[in-house]
Fold this sequence. Notes:
Strand content: 35-45%
Order of helices and strands: HEEEE
Radius of gyration: 14 Å
Number of domains: 1
Number of strands: 4
Strand order of the largest sheet: 1-2-3-4
Mean pLDDT: 85
Low-confidence stretches: none
Shape: globular
Amino acid sequence: MTEPAALVRQYLTLLETCNPDPAAYAELLHPEAPSHEHPALLARSTRLTTQSFDLQHLHTCSNDTVVVEAQWQGEASFPVPGFGPNRQLSAQVCLVFELFDGKIYRQQRYEG
């Protein structure tokens, strides 16, 4: 079984490919993971042409929880209200991953 920190790193690397195919994530995400989205600058459905995570800290907790602090950057494939087309976006993010059965079961994202 993949270590929690390595699994989260794999997931973030896959997110950086901007692959919209759910099958690409099946190996990493638990099949019963709930899907719910908090208000954010970009909705999960926003198509990105590029994105990256510059990891600043990664903490593995004893209860199969991984916390990531990162600088996120991305570019939307269409104009984002208030930002115009092809604008590079960035945010300081805190990502909290809960694992179950060796896969990501829940992810919370906080932006600042």
